[in-house]
Amino acid sequence: MNIGLDDIDSVEGGCTTYVASRIVKALVNLGISFSDYPNLIRLNPNIPWKTRGNGAVALRIQFNGKNSHNIFSVVCSIIKKHALSDSNPGFVMLTGDVPDDIVNFSKSAMHTLVTKKKALTLIRKHDLDSFELGSGLGIIGALSSIGCTLEDDHTFEVISYRKRRMCGKRREVSRASILAMNEKMGHLTFNNIDPETERILITPRGPDPVLFGIRGGGAASVLRSKDMVSTREPFEYMLYRTNQGTGAHLEHLLNVGDLKPYSSGRIAGSISTKTVTMEGGHVMFKLKNQEGEVNCAAYQQTGSLKESCTALEIGDFVEIGGGIRRASSRFPRVLNLEFLRVLYLKPQYRWINPKCNCGRIMESAGHEKGYRCRECGAKNRTGRKIPKEMQRTISTGLYQPPPRAQRHLTKPVARIGKEKVWTKPKLKPGWYSFKNSELF
Description:
The protein is an alpha+beta fold. Helix content is 20%, strand content 25%.
């Protein structure tokens, strides 16, 4: 059985993964076994009305065909208990294999705008149980999480949850222990700290119940890393298998001639205008290929990525990935960069005076009088300026924003070449701990 849920968090706080942990705890108490770790599925990050990380959760459980009504009731009651006034939860339950059209729906939700109407059509078609509150927009993510079975590249994250009374207060997590953990486990985990600013990235800043979360390539490594973090707060935790750090939203090839608002993907082409630095430090330029031309922007917050874009010149051939911002009365449609891959740099030249036989650069002798050498006095009446290739301040290769400005889905450079394919696991003992349940 597949249980999908989404949109149980809001600007007030809350957290969909926390509610998922409450559901897992309840199902464990009912004696239900899991066929996979909980799946944390990040969807298209460019949807303007998304919740903070646009993350949904799917639970995959062993089901004997009995008591489905009881499971549905348990999940609904937990969602009702934890839903906030401005959240819009959705919950979908599917028994059996995931149909292909739901898989395709999930793939679309990774890079473009999908509608609640389409989700409800699929729910009715397959006679699925579902539940919603508020506007019910969470139904979209709930169904999408079920359809994303993570059979391609994936990573893991262990998320720890704090006491309810601590939410909104300063997180009592030792910075020194995080730095030590990163020093020892940084090759097996990613984005623990920002190397440019040394800002800690595993602890969120909002009023939600997450104490810290550690991401990495393997289940064992993130569980081990969790034990290296010192905190004065008691916490519970749960391990997720996830598409974070896979770049899944940028695998889609965008068509310059038909760029849809809020879509994500990648485009290759040539730089067709000089880069311009706008007020606020944002960098703008245009990219062109046989399909047309698109405005591109690298914003101040992207740091080193923005700086790299300032070195681009007309004729350079690049691949860029990001999301499409909808056009407005003041601004055109723009592709907001999340990565830049320089594939070819067009040579740039400056023109210099010819050299004298003595080795010195000659100087002009006057209009149409050729050149003369100040060192030895030699003259050259037929000489011409010669081109000299300039040293570029950018090289071919991949450029990304620093970790502090990366999306949840951004594939870090350290993960390139470490992609994996899912094989049915034997879930590791200790993939969750609810020993502090009485505190919640």
